[in-house]
Automatic annotation (TrEMBL):
Keyword set, alphabetical order: DNA-binding, Transcription, Transcription regulation
GO molecular function terms attached to this record: DNA-binding transcription factor activity; transcription cis-regulatory region binding
Protein name per UniProt: LacI family DNA-binding transcriptional regulator
SMART domains reported for this sequence: HTH_LACI
Coiled coil segments of this chain: none
Organism: Shewanella zhuhaiensis
Length: 335
């Protein structure tokens, strides 16, 4: 098995130079760097990562906690996190919390036990107090998709209330006054904030929130399908539906099509998140852009800046939503 000494001899450089190339630290000319890489390839040399970690007190790995591993929302976020960290020669260890407090806590403890240099945490259920305590620990932590008082500088999040306002204001601006709302599960902060934005938009127009036009969904297509069925079965008239995410909007639209209802001629729809597939359905879904990819990149940038001393990356905490107007909303009187 080849050693760092063999690489040094074959490349004709010092051990220190080989170490700088392997660890991507210090200044090394491109010509010398290539000589070292060529020698490593010729010898099939693999750096001893355990020894590197002991020597540098770094594992060059970052733990990431996400709510779930499936679905169209978290994939783009994880791609950006992994891409930004891999470009800096860091690796990602992923754990899922499955929207359960015990599993989220277990996942955090697992990532800490792996000696990660930092954690990127998307925790839906863990209490603010737990997260505040976690951020006081030795391992640097940045929260994504979450705002916690007292540790704002560790949070990368969306203004969800403003997003809820944008979605419902758009429907109201088209003349709708009987507006149904399918929310996400209300134990999730983002679902509550988006609902609050909807209620504020109604209040701006002097309209009251009607419980008969509300359904608590689950952020999945099935929840939107079931929610739309429940709303129709209540027999309370409405001309538009605001959904707390695009997946539920897609499920609700599917139910309408099954029942022979036209979108937007009979019922208008607005979603939230701007995930890829709703732009390809018919009609194309009007939605609110949730820049989760940008937030993922920003969380990775925080780690690179605060943990690995990379001063070249940019960082900011709060993202503002934008309305994406497509084809799923029209005035209730339009034909």
């Amino acid at each position: 098995m080849a050693t760092i000494y063999d690489v040094s001899f074959l490349a004709g450089v010092s051990l220190a130079t080989v170490s700088r190339v392997v660890n991507n630290t210090g200044k090394v000319s491109e010509k010398t760097r290539q000589k070292v890489h060529d020698a490593m390839a010729q010898l099939d040399y693999r750096p001893n990562t355990i020894a590197q970690s002991l020597a540098s007190n770094r594992s060059n790995s970052v733990g990431v906690l996400v709510s779930q591993l499936d679905g169209p929302f978290y994939g783009p976020m994880m791609r950006e996190v992994e891409s930004a960290l891999r470009a800096a020669n860091k690796h990602v260890i992923i754990a899922a919390g499955h929207s359960d407090a015990a599993q989220e806590k277990e996942a955090v403890e697992f990532l800490l036990s792996r000696g990660c240099d930092a954690l990127i945490v998307d925790a839906e259920i863990l209490s603010n107090e737990y997260l505040q305590e976690l951020c006081r620990g030795k391992t640097p932590v940045v929260l994504i998709n979450r705002h916690v008082d007292g540790i704002e500088e560790r949070c990368v999040h969306l203004n969800n209330l403003q997003g809820g306002l944008l979605a419902s204001r758009h429907v109201l601006a088209h003349g709708h006054s009987r507006i149904a709302y399918i929310s996400g599960p209300l134990f999730k902060l983002d679902a509550r904030e988006r609902l609050e934005g909807h209620k504020q938009a109604l209040a701006e127009k002097g309209l009251e929130f009607d419980d008969a036009l509300f359904f608590e969904g689950d952020f999945r297509e099935e929840g939107g399908f079931e929610g739309m069925a429940a709303l129709l079965e209540r027999g309370v008239p409405f001309s538009a539906v605001v959904c707390a995410n695009d997946q539920m909007a897609s499920g609700a639209i599917a139910l309408c099509l099954e029942r022979g209802l036209r979108v937007p001629e009979d019922i208008s729809f607005v979603g939230f998140d701007n995930i890829p597939f709703p732009r390809y359905i018919s009609p194309k879904l009007t939605t609110v852009c949730n820049p989760i990819q940008d937030m993922g990149r920003m969380a990775a940038n925080w780690v690179l800046k605060e943990v690995y001393d990379n001063s070249e990356v940019s960082f900011h905490h709060r993202f503002e939503p934008e309305l994406v107007v497509r084809e799923s909303v029209q005035s209730p009187s339009a034909t």
